Amino acid sequence: MRSGCLEGKAVEFLAPHFLDVVCLLISITMFTLYNVFIWRKLKSDPIYTIQGASNLARRAWVVTVMEEKNDILAVQTLRNSTMAATFLASTAILLSVGVLSLTGQLDTIGTTWHSLNIFGSTEQSTLALKILVLLVNLFIAFFSFSSSIRMYNHVGFMINVPCMDGNYSSSMTFVAMQLNRAASHFHFGMHAFYFLVPLVFWFFGPLLLVFSTLAMICVVFCLDRTSKMYCDYMTPFSMKSCNLK
């Protein structure tokens, strides 16, 4: 009896937001399928995207820095990467505070946002749901960039530590893995930022969320795809990275 009552309340709660929730799930699914597609392509072609090519470049960079003992170059490069991640993490927090400030103005801004909302819900609870999803996305971006900063700091120490057992290949491989892991967190945070665009359009209607997601996927693919000229340029880096295998 109690379970039936809970199900009824759940249905009653979701009924006004049905189209918005469905469009959100469609948008998340499309973005997820795009990332799965890229992941599968990288399995067969490591330089299919700029991220894959950069992974090879970072591995070759670690080999060069640790072989030539170029500590100053390593510290300066890692400092630049840490500053970029710090700036974006701070931006994510500032945007979160800005979004939270909107919660006290739902009555006044709801009318403006819903002027183009033909099919979706116009209730305040729907606006609260949209703000909640937007906050979750921003917090994901913040923690991704924060994790990237943490990993870059670890690499800054590891890349300057001499190998104790004489197995330089293992040491370089471990440092390169941690550096690429930091870059992966940074990449994930950037994708969370990209997904902010469809979520902002969601405030003006659920259908705009789906269409803007399609447009953003096309834009992200153009940004991710490695050009033929860059593929040729990466060949020496690929050969240099083989030292870690």
UniProtKB/TrEMBL annotation:
Transmembrane annotation, as ranges: 18-37, 85-106, 126-145, 157-179, 199-223
Coiled coil: none
InterPro entries named among the record's database cross-references: DUF599
Top-level taxon of the source organism: Bacteria
Keyword list, A-Z: Membrane, Transmembrane, Transmembrane helix
Ubl conjugation found in the keyword field: no
Descriptive protein name: DUF599 domain-containing protein
Species of the source: Desulfolutivibrio sulfodismutans
